[in-house]
Specification:
Two copies of one chain form a homodimer.
Chain A: E1 3-10, E2 14-16, E3 21-27, E4 33-39, E5 42-47, E6 51-58, E7 61-64, E8 71-72, E9 77-81, E10 86-91, E11 95-102
Antiparallel strand pairs in A: 1-3, 2-3, 3-4, 4-11, 5-10, 6-9, 6-11, 7-8, 7-10
């Protein structure tokens, strides 16, 4: 188990897709923003404002990035998403993730 | 939205009931422990080691504490659970909670 110290965490959850995707917003010591979340099995599309690094901690899923084919991730694995774009996921098993927002 | 500052958060999620209940473990600045979690609709039983204060941030549910009848909570509302006991919940809508562990 790894930990983030000296972090600021928002108490209330972010709830998407009727609870199938939920996360907590965290500001790290260096001021960068992350969200720690869980996705239940299902298909989801996420839009990005800032660029993101999606770090998959556990779980089986496929991801489709813009202009790319679907690919199966071998967890733990990360993928990058450009700002102002979107990505699709097909979540096969409960997936734990850490999303880093890149300024 | 309220925030916990100078906190230590464990990166990996706690996952229960096949993902229907998930949480993140947080140590607060004063050394006390909490978990910030989400429960999807369903019926769950939780065992306690330490005494707990369960603060329901949002969502509709009923709770049954030991030797008590089922009662509907009017969120936001908190309830206390003794150490080394358990409680049952019937979650009606996605429920966001903060569980404080009492030494």
């Amino acid at each position: 188990m790894s930990k983030f110290t000296n972090a600021t965490i928002t108490k209330e959850a972010n709830i998407y897709y009727d609870g199938s995707v939920t996360s907590r917003s965290v500001e790290l010591e260096d001021g960068s923003q992350i969200s720690l979340g869980v996705m239940l099995p299902g298909e989801y599309t996420f839009n990005t404002n800032k660029a993101e690094i999606m770090e998959i901690l556990s779980g089986n899923l496929e991801v489709k990035l813009p202009d790319e084919e679907w690919k199966t991730l071998s967890t733990p694995e990360s993928f990058n998403v450009a700002a102002n774009s979107s990505f699709d996921v097909r979540v096969k098993t409960v997936t734990d993730y850490c999303c880093r927002y890149i300024d």
